[in-house]
Design goal:
By secondary structure, the protein is an alpha/beta fold. The chain has helices at residues 50-54, 129-142, 158-169, 181-189, 204-211, 226-234, 263-268, 284-296, 313-319; strands at residues 3-10, 23-30, 37-46, 75-82, 92-95, 102-106, 111-112, 149-152, 173-178, 194-197, 216-221, 235-243, 271-274, 304-308, 328-332. It contains 9 helices and 15 strands. Strand 9, helix 4 (181-189) and strand 10 (194-197) form a beta-alpha-beta unit. The protein binds NADPH dihydro-nicotinamide-adenine-dinucleotide phosphate.
Length: 334
C-alpha cells in the first residue's frame, strides 16, 4: 500500500500580505525509494522572508514557486529508509524539501548534519542559512573592524540575532533596531549596547544621533524605508552598508519607499553592497568552525519561535511580516 505525504501548496499569487487562503494543505502519494534515493520524515521546517519573493511572478535570483505544486524551503528530517550508500536509517539530514512532512529524494539533495549535541533545528537558523548570512555580511562584505559602530535592523530576527552577537565577538559597538519592548529586552540579554524600538521612536534621526554620536561605520540592513534613510544620515565618511534585505517592501504592491537621501552616499563616500548568501557558501565550513564551538561553549545563543504542525505553516510564514518571531521562526512536526 503506498504511503502519503502531506504538503503545503501555493493556490494563488498573494497580493500584499499573504493570507492563509493563498495556501492549501494537500495529500500526495509517497513513492517507494528507488536505487540512489532516500525516504525522509521532516521534523523542522523553515519559513523565511525571501519566500515571499518566490510567491510572486517577478523575475528574481530564484524562480517563482509553481501554483498547485509543492513549495520548498529549508528542512531538517530523519532518514526512514535509504537506497543510497551515503545515508542510513536514523541519519539527521537537511534539505530544501520543506513545506511537507515527508519525501523521497535523491541522496544528492540531502546534507548530513554535522556531529554535534546541539539541537538539529539550529541548522535552519543560527547555524544555517540565516547565521551564514550574518557572518558573510559582517566579515566578507562589510569587513567589520573592532572598535567600529554597527547598526543592525530587524536585530531580533534570525539573521539579526546572529549579526549582533558575531559583531560583539568581533569587538564592535552594536546598536540594534526592533519592533517591541520584549524584543528590546531580549537584545540587551545578548549584550547589544543600545536598542531602538522603531515603532515607538518618532524621530529616528535624533535617536540614532544620540546613540551613535561617533557615527555609524557599518549598517547591516534587513528592512529598508525609514531606517535606511535615518542610517544614511548618521553614517560616517567611508561608512559601509550591507544591503541584506528590505522586508518593509516585500508585501508592497509596487510602491517602494525611499531612501530619498541617497545624496548622503556621495557626500560621505558610502559604499553600499548587496549581499546574497549563496555567493558565500564556499565559506560555510569556516563559519561553522567558528560558530559550532561557540554555541557548544554557551558563548553564542539562539532564540526560536516555534509553531506546531504542518497546517500552521502559512500562518507562521505570514507572522514574519507581522513581527511575531523572536529569533528564528520555525515549524515543528510530530
Ligand atoms: P527575521 O527572523 O528577522 O523575521 C522578520 C522580522 O522582520 C520580523 O520579526 C520583524 O521584526 C521584521 N519586520 C517585518 N516586517 C517589517 C516591516 N514592515 N518593517 C520593519 N521590520 C519588519 O527574518 P530573517 O532573519 O530570516 O531575515 C531578515 C532579513 O534578511 C530579511 O529582509 C531577509 O529577506 C534578509 N535575508 C537576506 C538574505 C540574503 O542572502 N540577502 C538571506 C537571509 C535573509 P520586528 O519586530 O523587529 O519588526
Amino acid at each position: 500500500m503506498s504511503q502519503l505525504s502531506h504538503q503545503i501548496q501555493l493556490l494563488r499569487r498573494p497580493t500584499g500580505l499573504p493570507t492563509p487562503a493563498d495556501f492549501a494543505l494537500r495529500e500526495v502519494p509517497l513513492p517507494e525509494p528507488q536505487e540512489g534515493e532516500v525516504l525522509v520524515a521532516n521534523q523542522w521546517l523553515s519559513v523565511d522572508p525571501y519566500m515571499r519573493g518566490r510567491m510572486s511572478e517577478a523575475k528574481s535570483y530564484v524562480p517563482p514557486f509553481p501554483l498547485n505544486g509543492p513549495l520548498d524551503g529549508g528542512a531538517i528530517g530523519t532518514v526512514l529508509a535509504s537506497r543510497h550508500p551515503g545515508f542510513k536509517v536514523g541519519d539527521r539530514v537537511s534539505s530544501m524539501l520543506g513545506w511537507r512532512d515527508s519525501f523521497v529524494a535523491r541522496g544528492e539533495q540531502l546534507t548530513l548534519l554535522p556531529a554535534t549535541p546541539l539541537p538539529s533545528q539550529l541548522f535552519l537558523g543560527a547555524l544555517g542559512m540565516p547565521g551564514m548570512t550574518a557572518w558573510a555580511g559582517l566579515h566578507k562584505v562589510a569587513k567589520l573592524q573592532a572598535g567600529e559602530t554597527l547598526l543592525v535592523s530587524a536585530a531580533s530576527g534570525a539573521v539579526g540575532t546572529m549579526a549582533v552577537q558575531l559583531a560583539k565577538r568581533a569587538g564592535a559597538r552594536v546598536i540594534g533596531s526592533t519592533g517591541s519592548a520584549d524584543k528590546v529586552a531580549y537584545l540587551k540579554t545578548l549584550g547589544v549596547d543600545a536598542v531602538i524600538n522603531y515603532r515607538e521612536t518618532p524621530d529616528l534621526d535624533a535617536e540614532l544621533a544620540r546613540l551613535a554620536p561617533e557615527g555609524i561605520h557599518v549598517y547591516f540592513e534587513n528592512v529598508g524605508g525609514a531606517m535606511l534613510e535615518a542610517a544614511l544620515n548618521q553614517m560616517t565618511v567611508h561608512g559601509r552598508i550591507v544591503l541584506c534585505g528590505l522586508i518593509e517592501q516585500y508585501n508592497s504592491n509596487g510602491g517602494a519607499s525611499g531612501p530619498r537621501n541617497l545624496a548622503q552616499m556621495i557626500r560621505k563616500r558610502i559604499l553600499m553592497q548587496g549581499l546574497l548568501v549563496s555567493d558565500h557558501w564556499q565559506h560555510y565550513g569556516d563559519f561553522l568552525a567558528e560558530a559550532i564551538p561557540a554555541f557548544e561553549a554557551g558563548a553564542l545563543q539562539a532564540e526560536e519561535t516555534v509553531s506546531e504542525g504542518l497546517a500552521s505553516m502559512p500562518q507562521a510564514f505570514i507572522g514574519l511580516f507581522e513581527g511575531r518571531n523572536t529569533g528564528k521562526m520555525l515549524v515543528k512536526l510530530d
